[in-house]
Here is the input.
Amino acid sequence: MYWRDSVHAPPPPPRGSLLGRLAGLAGALLIIGGAAAVGVAIILQQHAPQPSAAAAGTIGFGRAHPLALRRSAPVSVHIPAIGVTSDLLHLGVDADGAIQVPSLYTEADEAAWYKYSVTPGQIGTSVIEGHVDSYQGPAVFFRLGALRPGDTVDVTLADRVTAVFRITGVRQYLKSRFPAKVIYGTTAYAALRLITCSGAFDYATGHYLSSTVVYASLISAVPASGG
Here is the structure.
């Protein structure tokens, strides 16, 4: 399934530019900006947790931080507090400028890394997205809104290092007032954003009206043991 490029969608980076991948862009809703939301969970009376005001926290360090990892593609994500473990798809845009997202039919239980963001652990903003529900019911990020500051997110990289992030804030935004520059802008530390649909479901349009965004910052790296 694909969603058409829009003012919320970050294009692939200009040729030869790493720093400009997300910097200064209007930002992207990616999976959470289109018809990813089918409302099945609501119909089945399974309501996804919504972020509380107490979980708003902060968006990150707010300053430069020296801890960082070398570039290495992410392989999987583990979020112990909500019982999520998922391989990571690597998604970009198609030839027509539409952003590729996981299929609601076959990949709703898999999260996806936006491959035009930095890899998790690099200085900058790395983006992982996932569906809140699917045609079968709750999807991979159904309980994302239940996370709280202090919870951790582990991202295993291709070089077998696990990047450990601590959540600093969990916030819900109306899509009509989505602060894209805050969410997708450059940072002076290794930042991670987890994103899914949330809030009220508009049956007329088939979309959720809000997005849940989890802000996290790199706190450590665990090298592979053995072999």
Observations:
- Residues 17 and 28 are 18 Å apart (CA to CA).
- Helices lie at 40-43, 180-184.
- The chain has one domain: 2-222.
- The mean pLDDT is 82.
